[in-house]
Amino acid sequence: MNINGSIVNLTHNAHRRSPVILFDKHLALFTELARDLYVLLVIIGVLLNAYILSRLIAFASANKQRFRSGAGLPLMAMCSADLLTLLGIIVEVIITAFLTYDALPTVVRSLHCKVIVLLYVESQSKLQEK
User: Fold this and answer.
1) Within the chain, which residues score under 50 in pLDDT?
2) Reported pTM
3) Domain containing residue 25
4) Which residues of 74-88 are buried (b: 16+ CB within 10 A; e: fewer)?
């Protein structure tokens, strides 16, 4: 009985200290940290773009002619596009990382899948054109 108990304990302890299991735990931790950092950077980007957009709106209302003829209008277009892109990234991360599969209705999941496939196909066709 003592021999069997020590063999079981030996194999159980060896399994607990396995480098593969430790690597999996570290990989999972790194993945979670990377995801959280990514979301944090996107949120910071949204806040900064919202601030810039508000400043550009104030500039446009103060001096319309200078805003239109200077760099204000292209900057506003660029800032708006960047803000929409960052909001899209936030929605994508929330759908894929934080929600379970059953949390969304079938229509939303289907639309999400179609948009992702469309974006992938478009990006691949643009890469092949180059």
Assistant:
1) 1-2, 4-12, 14-15
2) 0.62
3) 2-97
4) ebbeebeebbeebee
